[in-house]
Design goal:
By secondary structure, the chain is α/β, with parallel strands linked by helices. It has helices at residues 12-16, 30-36, 49-52, 64-76, 96-110, 124-132, 148-151, 162-176, 188-197, 218-221, 239-255; strands at 22-26, 42-45, 82-86, 114-116, 137-142, 180-184, 201-205, 213-216. Strands 1-2-3-4-5-6-7-8 form an eight-stranded parallel barrel, surrounded by five helices. The protein is globular and about 75 Å long. Bound molecules: 3-methyl-2-oxobutanoic acid (KIV).
Length: 272
């Protein structure tokens, strides 16, 4: 028997029976996954990495290879959280068969526990195709960042008659067999009503405290992504300011030749 204690990783099944709200954050790298894993039930390798890590102005140019490389990094850096990897734009919308090939590649090469894809009623046949072939799926409704141009920008959806469409999307995703659905940037009463109507997990981002779990982009809630802060983000820290201060101190130490000092060098005489 191994002397190393093995930690049981959450699976789509065990997430579904948690008796506390699902704690989820995005993660894109091994060091960040190591920091988040002890506290999170679900880590999402979101295609938001295009904007947060690569400085793109939308998620549209993110590739499958990028998702696989970051998915591998996050699986390596985590032990306990279930890891979900986003299917990027253009990698699944063409046909259920295309979606299966890409999802299988992502699952096989990253070791992730599930994939996430954006879409409601229109993606239901694809979700069903994947689930029937053994791929656990998280749906994503409400604001769908891959459809930002169709939405007319990053905005709250589900006002007025739009609410019926979002509810229909939620029901279709559940019927197709997804085990969870992310609800992004929707009116609160609508997200609450969806959570009441569905038997699967609802994971909110700009949705409702009544959702079965919450997710945020880690860099947003840590204050590390200054470009744009949606209203639904709460900054639990302001690490950007802390990094700024630390780098300014480093630059000063280098310029004044006080770094490296005797403790950081080998055989350097101590100053008197
Ligand atoms: O890509 C992403 O980070 C996401 C979350 C915002 C849910 O889809």
């Amino acid at each position: 028997m191994s002397k190393h204690q093995t930690v049981r990783r959450y699976t789509p099944r065990s997430l579904a029976v948690l008796d506390t709200p699902v704690v989820a954050l995005t993660a894109y790298t091994t060091p960040m996954a190591r920091l988040l894993d002890p506290h999170c039930d679900l880590l999402l390798v979101g295609d938001s990495l295009g904007m947060v890590v690569y400085g793109m102005d939308s998620t549209l140019a993110v590739s499958v290879e990028m998702m696989i490389a970051h998915g591998q990094a996050v699986v390596r850096g985590s032990q306990k959280a279930c890891v979900a990897v986003d299917m990027p734009f253009g990698s699944y919308q063409e046909s259920p068969q295309q979606a299966f090939r890409v999802a299988a590649d992502i699952m096989a090469r990253t070791g992730a526990g599930c994939i996430k894809l954006e879409g409601g009623q229109e993606m239901a046949p694809t979700i069903e195709f994947l689930v029937q072939r053994g791929i656990p799926v998280i749906g994503h409704i409400g604001l769908k960042p891959q459809a930002v141009h169709a939405h007319g920008g990053f905005r709250t959806v589900g006002r007025g008659s739009e609410a019926e469409q979002v509810m229909a999307d939620a029901l279709a995703v559940e019927k197709a067999g997804a085990f969870a659905v992310v609800i992004e940037s929707t009116m609160e009463p609508l997200s609450r009503a969806i959570t009441e109507a569905l038997g699967i997990l609802t994971i909110g981002i700009g949705a409702s405290p009544q959702c079965d779990g919450q997710i945020l982009v880690a860099e947003d809630m840590l204050g590390l992504f200054p470009d744009f802060t949606p209203r639904f983000v709460r900054k639990f820290a302001n690490l950007g300011q802390e990094v700024d201060r630390a780098v300014a101190d480093y630059a000063h130490a280098v310029r004044t030749r006080t770094f490296p000092g005797p403790a950081e060098c080998v055989g350097m005489p101590k100053a008197d």
